Amino acid sequence: MESLIQQFNIDVRAVQPILFTMLEHMHTGLQGPSHSMLMIPTFTDVPSKPVNGLYLALDFGGTNFRCLLLNIKHNEILDSWSDSRKIDPQIPTSKELMSVLGGFIQDFLHLHEKELTPRPDILYTGYTFSFPTEQTSLNSGTLVHWTKEFITKGCVGEDPVKQLQEELNKRNLDWVKIIAMCNDTVGTLCTRRLTDPSVEIGVILGTGSNASYREKISNIKKLDPKAIYSSDHMLINMEWGSFSGMPQNEFDKIIFEKTKEHSSQPFEKQISGRYLPMMAREALRKAILTGCVFNGLWGDGSTLSDEEKSPFSDIHREMWDEKHRLRGEEMEEIIWDESEKKEKVEEILRQLWCKSNPRLKLREGVTLQLSDLSLVQQLFKAILTRSARLSAIAVSAVVIHIVKGFIEEAKEKGRSETDYLAKHPKITAAIDGSLFTHNRGYKEEMARSVELCLDSVKGYCLTSSSSSSSSATPSSSTETSVSFSFPSIIPEVVLEATNDGSGIGAAVIVAANS
User: Each residue of 110-126: pLDDT tens digit?
Assistant: First the structure.
């Protein structure tokens, strides 16, 4: 069992090559099309003026769709009204999906007709659309591919703003104008930035995961060099879920194989709330089948195969069967069962056993050994801890990129590296999402890991080899040595929970650009 748990152990003080790889991928994504992180320009910067007015925010981030009506004055929300509904990822066509979204918006506006009286000529609207979308302007773009197990046809390759606006127009809601699109990380960054000027990073750690940060426009080489922008910085939607450079174990590969898009979003599948219970179930299944825990407990099960004896067998059912799958809440309850006999751990496991295979019975009078229950708890905790540490590594890479930008800016102005620290004594990452906000100990483990990770690379010089070729023939390739120096001075990094950034942020961005 120890070797199985060890597969989830990450030493954040020995990840310099991983940081270097992520920084390289960030740089590549800023230059042009990338096979890894898309590094999408969002055509907006953080708010630079006070936010005032009545705005509608639409938030489509996964299995929920929300409408929020916000009355903002001097950056403070005076009044807010919101409602949400579940969205089925299996909706087959874009027409049906748009009908569901448009109908809900129509009902929401009718419900809040009083707050909209007299009706404005234009209700400025922001749309948080948290799926990989290549933006071409503030309110237009193309959906690159679905994530979070969505399968709806007729959306990939299309403009999500255009599709929803056309649906609103059909319903005589053409006075509702979507003038800004963002994803949840950008919204989270902008929301926190209203009250904290040290915020440079926005992160989502929930059902899925992604991040955004502020980038100097001159570094975004894939932008039109002739275009004129209102700021010298722009927010970048990293789409870091597609990063493939984190260490992977056998269970990562199982999850990749069992999800709909096998090679898509590898990093997201290693850390986010939708996939961690899958990871826990797969790891526990192996522990049982290899006799690490609960060995020899089977009674009336002689005709069952080893796979069927696993309480989390996926034989005869889809991976995402809501009835049988381990839920995130159950995983958390197992991790934090502090009772002497681990009663909650046993209760949850027994329930899952019965749901998974009613044919399987434990021998009469048999109790689950406390030592086995404790091992299951350790396994699940190791999986959650690895998520926090991998997230910390990714945040650390973004911090290093930002710090190097600060230093370059200081040098351009003839200042020393220490001068930038006086101007930027702190970098804050605004973080939203249930994984970060609802799991006890996650924030603390992540913050500790960021500190350890960054302390371990200060002033570190990494030399790596990379292949270059002047033609298509392998014989012409050459090995070149690449040297990378990490900053010797890194400011304090603070992780701040930011509630509802994905919703409020859309309204903030609309206000900043209207």
Answer: 999 999 999 999 999 99
